[in-house]
Amino acid sequence: MRTEFLRSVQSAVRRSNYASSTRNFSSSASNPERKVTVLGAAGGIGQPLSMLMKLNPLVSTLSLTILLVPLVLLLIVAISILELRIVANCSHINTRDKVSGYMEDKDLAKALEGSDVVIIPAGVPRKPGMTRDDLFNINAGIVKNLCQHVAKHCPNEAGTYDPKRLFGVTTLDVVRAKTFYATKTGLSVEEVNVPVVGGHAGITILPLFSQAFPQANLGEDDIVALTKRTQDGGTEVVEAKAGKGSATLSMAYAGAIFADACLKGLNGVPDVVECSFVESNVTELPFFASKVRLGVNGVEEIHGLGSMSDYEKEGLAKLIPELKSSIQKGIDFAHKN
Ligand SMILES: NC(=O)c1ccc[n+]([C@@H]2O[C@H](COP(=O)([O-])OP(=O)(O)OC[C@H]3O[C@@H](n4cnc5c(N)ncnc54)[C@H](O)[C@@H]3O)[C@@H](O)[C@H]2O)c1
């Protein structure tokens, strides 16, 4: 039973990647030791993400870090005990990786030391009426603080900026585009692939259904509706949860898929291609999401946009000014803080 379940999780991960990389998915026996650290493992995303990483045979050490916002001491102790259950819970799963749990900022050095991949699902989720932009200042501050610990305790080279190792994770947009496309066309979701380019908010998310595989004969109205649904996917979940947060399970799945691709790249698996928001010269913008090939050094190659329909070209022209101002906001934040 367990073996069958594991096999189906593994094959889901395998199928979700681009076809060219699937034949290279290897068993734990031939995989090197890899340490993965999850910062914020007790949250709505952190918990399922931690479990998915526990099931990943490429991971040999899983370091789960519960981070707390220091409000009231008693409250912190109570939450800590509750949140630490994720560590015990995860550690009982009989897969390859050893699990360790860390709870406070002072433990971060131990948690991060020797990590090959650090995943940060810590942050404040979106509430109805809030845009992704509204969240920016809060979450940028949280990520900045955690990145400083990463740079200190498991640096590639501290004090340097390596554009090949900076990825914006836009996998959730790809996951949604694949699901919605397969549902509309009746194609098997396991075989479907849809590149999504641009950014990761509203109209900056541009699914390229003209390059979807396999191709289906959809009318323009259907393409417009699928594009809009992909762009509004986050809002659809925020509204469905009515004030109780944003996408957690699908985001955890998307994060696990991207982390798996990074691990494969680090392990030297060839032709690992995912869409990601990276420093890029594919358009006039300094950062842009498109297909990238991942390897031992991070981003090994950035793919161009390929042939696009007129509707997609219009979408690209519309998203450029909006994405440009978001990028500027990020650059300004980094310079000021
Ligand atoms: N990119 C996307 O598409 C997408 C989708 C969904 C959620 N998110 C983001 O992911 C993050 C997590 O969402 P969630 O639903 O799991 O939230 P959650 O509230 O369930 O969990 C958040 C976790 O972050 C930790 N945390 C909060 N503030 C912190 C701080 N200042 N320092 C350290 N840790 C802190 C909390 O302890 C908690 O464990 C949010 O920022 C949310 O906006 C992104």
Give me the CATH fold name of the largest domain.
L-2-Hydroxyisocaproate Dehydrogenase, Chain A, domain 2
User: Which sheet architecture does the biggest sheet show?
Assistant: 4 strands, parallel
CATH architectural name of the largest domain: Alpha-Beta Complex
End-to-end Cα distance, whole Å, is: 51 Å
Instruction: Specify the CATH class of the largest domain.
Output: Alpha Beta
**Element string (H = helix, E = strand):** HHEHEHHEHEHHEEHHHEEEH
Overall morphology? globular
Number of strands: 9
Provide the number of structural domains: 2
What percentage of residues falls in helices of 4 or more residues?
A: 40-55%
The order of strands across the largest sheet is: 3-2-1-4
Tell me the radius of gyration: 20 Å
Q: What is the residue-mean pLDDT, rounded to a whole number?
A: 87
Strand content: 5-15%
Q: What hetero molecules are bound to the protein chains?
A: nicotinamide-adenine-dinucleotide
Tally of helical segments: 12
Could you state the CATH homologous superfamily of the largest domain? Lactate dehydrogenase/glycoside hydrolase, family 4, C-terminal
Poorly predicted sequence stretches spanning 5 or more consecutive residues: 18-28, 71-75
Structure classification: alpha/beta
